[in-house]
Amino acid sequence: MRSNETNFIKRLQLGKEDALEFIVDKYLPLVKGVTHKILFPIKQDGVIEECINDVFLSIWNNANKFHGDATDFKKWVCAITKFKAIDYYRKATKRVELISEHVETSEAASIEDELIEREDRTELIRLINQMEPVGRDIFIMKYFLGLKSEEISARLGLTVASVHNRIYRGKKKLKQEITNFKMGGHLA
Fold it and tell me: Can you give the pTM of this predicted structure?
């Protein structure tokens, strides 16, 4: 018996390799599209290929955690792809940021200015990382990946109004935390 539209989820959960081949054939265009959309700005083809392989490995390793039908499976694959690509994006941009910080130290700015700027940037990243997961993902997609609110709402299954509300609340909270920090307070 080979995997087909009606049995591929069950066969994947049983560890049948033909089910993984079926899934790769069926979902590769979707996985490639989402991965390229998120990772294209870093312009590293090797990272994109690695991420795609990691997505299918994750599907294989976590197949037994999936409960649903073929429609839900497509959404599950899309979610895994999105979060893997965001993880790869974070890792790649973190490396770029470290290189960028190294270059900045050789410029003629005063040491005091550099320390203040670096501290502010580090605190901002730390604050974003402390946000609740959906809010953090929205911020990353909006301000780091440059996605429009409509694209974010479609990817996360939220309404556009909900995305706008979360951005507004997140910006307000960040502003308040940064103001507290600059006045000598401590970050939450």
Answer: 0.52
User: pLDDT tens for residues 116-146?
Assistant: 566 666 677 778 778 888 888 888 788 777 7
List the structure tokens of 182. Answer: 């600059």
pLDDT band at 97 (very low <50, low <70, confident <90, very high): low
DSSP label at residue 6: T
Averaged pLDDT of the chain: 81
Alpha helices by DSSP H, listed for the chain, are 8-13, 17-39, 45-61, 70-105, 111-130, 133-139, 149-156, 160-182
For CA atoms 51, 48, 160, 67, the dihedral sign is: negative
- Please report, for residues 42, 80, 120, 138, 151, the alpha-carbon distance to residue 141 in angstroms, rounded to integers and kept in the order given: 14, 15, 21, 5, 9
**What's the N-to-C CA distance of the chain in angstroms?**
57
Please state, in angstroms and as integers, the Cα–Cα distance from residue 126 to each residue in 65, 75, 121, 131, 177, following that order.
31, 30, 9, 9, 11
